[in-house]
Design a protein that fits this description.
The chain is mostly beta strands. Helices cover 0% and strands 53% of the residues. The protein has no helices and 13 strands. The strands form three sheets. Strands 2, 4, 5, 6, 9, 12 and 13 form a seven-stranded mixed sheet that branches. It has a four-stranded antiparallel sheet with strand order 1-3-8-7, with no helix packed on it. The chain is globular and about 40 Å long.
Length: 123
């Protein structure tokens, strides 16, 4: 089982990045997926998740209206389009499989994590 993230980098405030997570080693279409971010010294923050049917999509309040999650089961990928980035979005972003994605309450327990990709928002 492997999850590999890409697309991170350095961007100015107000800029955009598209993160992508490529899954392998399991039946991707059977799993709800989550994007989580981590800052040194802080606990992980569940950013966004998407269900198998795409009917369940969740965003944490701080990214609503700016981030868009999507998945392509044919390509085994889950993407996170990040717009109008702010310095407080700086973090390592990882994707993970989760037990479920609830549109109101967010993701359930996480299982497999990727190593992450660094996003730095700075002028």
């Amino acid at each position: 089982v492997q999850l590999v993230e890409s697309g991170g980098g350095l961007v100015q405030p107000g800029g955009s990045l598209n993160l992508s997570c490529l899954a392998s080693g399991f039946t991707f279409g059977n799993f709800d997926m989550n994007w989580v971010r981590r800052v040194p010294g802080q606990g992980p923050e569940w950013v966004s998740c998407i269900g198998i049917t795409r009917g369940s999509i969740y965003y944490t309040d701080s990214v609503k209206g700016r981030f868009i999650i999507s998945r392509d089961d044919a390509k085994n990928t889950v993407d996170l389009q990040m717009n109008n980035l702010k310095p407080e979005d700086t973090a390592v972003y990882s994707c993970a499989t989760v037990d479920y994605c609830d549109s109101t309450y967010g993701p359930g327990s996480t299982h497999t994590w990727g190593s992450g990709t660094q996003v730095t928002v700075s002028s």
